[in-house]
Amino acid sequence: MLRLTKIRFVTAAFLLAFSFAPALAGDVVLENLTINEDKGVLRIARVEALNTNLSSDEIRRLLDTSADGKEALAMLMRFSADKFAISGASFSGDEGTMIFAPILATGIQKGRLERLICAGVDVDLKNIEGAGAVSVKFKALEMEKADFAPLMSALTRGDAEIAGFRAERLVWGGFEASVPDADLSANAAGGNRIRVSLGKLISTNQYAGDTLVRSVGEIGNLVIELPPASEGGRTLAGLGYSKLDLSMSGEARYDAATRALVLENYMLKGIQAGQLRLSGKFGNVDPALLGMAVPNEKLAALFLANVSELEIRFVNEGLVDNGFAFAAVQQGKSAAALRAETSALAVQFLPMLLGGDPSSLPLAQSVQTFLKDSKNFTLTLKSRGAPLPLGRLSAIGDPATFLALVEVTLKSNQ
Q1: Do residues 233 and 190 lie in contact, with contact meaning Cβ atoms separated by under 8 Å?
Q2: Distance between CA atoms of 314 and 312, rounded to whole angstroms?
Q3: Residue ranges in 33-143 assigned as alpha helix (H)
Q4: Cβ(365)–Cβ(347) under 8 Å?
Q5: 333 secondary structure, DSSP code
Q6: Are 7 and 37 in contact (CB under 8 A)?
Q7: Rounded distance between C-alpha atoms, residue 223 and residue 350, angstroms
Q8: What are the DSSP calls for 243-258, one per residue?
Q9: Rounded to an integer, what distance in angstroms lies between the CA atom of residue 249 and that of residue 218?
C-alpha cells in the first residue's frame, strides 16, 4: 500500500495550524514542487499560506518530509495562517496513484480553524495479490469551527487512545470503493468485487465550553454490495437482497447542570427492510462520557450513569418476512407454517423464561401478535421508582430481579 504517512502536505492540511503564541507573519507561495518519496513521486501544483508564522523553508520541509517526526509536529503546533491552500496534487508510484483535489483552510489559529474544505481524493491501486485493482473515491469534506488542539496535545503526550478533534459542523459527501474479494477469482460468476459507498455524513454540534450539549447527525445511504458467489452474497440473495442500503440519524441533548442526557429518535433504516428507532433518558452522566477521556475513565462514568426510560420501536418493511422465508427454506417448511410454529412457541416458553412473572403473559401475547403478522412493535422499559444505575443493571443475572426493577411493556401492530 502507498505510504500515505510520508505525504506531509496531507497531514498539514488536516491537522493544520497549531499556534500557541503569535509570531511575525508573512505570505508563502510554493509552485511546481516535485518530491521524491520512498514509493513514488509527489507533485504539488501550488501551495499558498497567507499571513503565516512559518517560513518558506519550514513549509517546504513539511511537504518534502525532510523534517523528522518531532520537528514536523513542533512546526505544526505553532503553525498559524489566515489561509492555507493546496491547489492540487498527485502521487504516482509502482503500487498506484492518488489524485488530490484542492484543499483550503482559513482562520487557522491556536489549533482552531474557521473552515476546512477538502474537495476530494481519488485512489487507484494496482493488482492486489492477483485479485484485482482497488479504487476509492473520497468526495468533498467540509468542516466549520474545527478544533484540532486536543488531537495535537494527545499526540504530543503519546496518548493516542484519547486523540481526537471536534467541529461544530461537518458535511461529507461520502465515498465510493471497489475492492476485490481475495477468496474469489475475478472470473467467478458475477465477478469478485466488493462495492461499498456512502451517500453523505452530516454532523452539527453545539458546545458549552468543552462540553458537547447538542449533537444532530445523519448518515445517508451506506450501501454494501457483495459478490454473488461469496458466502455473504449468497446469504443476502437468500434473504431477498442484492445489496444492503442503510441510513442512520438522531439527536442527543445534554444538560451539564442536571447531568441529564436525552437521546431522541436515533433511527436505523434499511431499504426494503425496516426502521429501528431508539429514544432514551439518562441521568448522572459525567461530561467525560461525551469527551475525550481515557477508556477507563469513560467506563467508570458509564457505570455511574443511570437510565429512567428507553423506547425501542421497529417498523417492518420486509426484513421479518424475508427472514421467515429464508429460514423456512432451510427447514423445508412453508413460511406460514414456520410463523405459526414460532408464535405458538413464544406463548408457551416466554413466560417460563421470564420466571412466571405476571407481566410475562401479556408480553408473550404481544410477541405472538407480531410474529403472526409482522407490522411493528414498540418496546418500552421504565424504571420502577428511582432511575437505575447502569452498573447495577449490568449485574442483574435473572429475569425476576430485572422485572422487579423495570416495567416492561410491548405493543404490537399499533
Answers
A1: yes
A2: 7
A3: 56-64, 69-77
A4: yes
A5: S
A6: yes
A7: 36
A8: SEEEEEEEEEEEETTT
A9: 4
Give the separation between CA 18 and CA 113, rounded to whole angstroms. Answer: 9
Task: Write the DSSP assignment of 163-211 as a string of letters.
Answer: ---EEEEEEE--EEEEEE-TTS-TTSTT-SEEEEEEEEEEEEEEEETTE
The answer to whether 312 and 379 are in contact (CB under 8 A) is: yes
First-to-last alpha carbon distance for the chain, in angstroms, is 53
Grid cell locating 142: 467540509
Report the C-alpha gap between 266 and 275 in whole angstroms.
Answer: 10
Return the ∠ at Cα 303 (arms to 297 and 305), rounded to 5°.
Answer: 100
Residues in CB range of 160: below 8 A, 6 or more apart: 154
d(CA 231, CA 407): 41
Residues 122, 126, 128, 132, CA torsion sign: positive
Are 189 and 228 a contacting pair, CB within 8 Å? yes
**Would residue 5 be called left, alpha or beta, if left means φ above 0 and alpha means ψ between -120 and 50 degrees?**
alpha
Radius of gyration over alpha carbons of the chain, in Å?
A: 27
User: pLDDT digits over 316-363, tens only?
Assistant: 999 999 999 999 999 999 999 999 999 999 989 988 888 888 888 999
What pLDDT is recorded for position 157? 75
Give the mean model confidence (pLDDT) for residues 175-189. 91
Kind and range of the H or E run holding 121: strand 121-125
Cβ pair 317, 274 in contact under 8 A: yes
387 DSSP assignment: P
Reported as a single tens digit per residue, the pLDDT across 66-84 is 667 777 777 888 889 999 9
- Cβ contacts of residue 120 below 8 Å, gap of 6+? 100, 101, 137, 138, 139, 140, 141, 173
- Strands 193-208 vs 175-180: parallel, antiparallel or unpaired: antiparallel
pLDDT at 129: 61
Model confidence at 185: pLDDT above 80: yes
| pTM, full prediction | 0.84
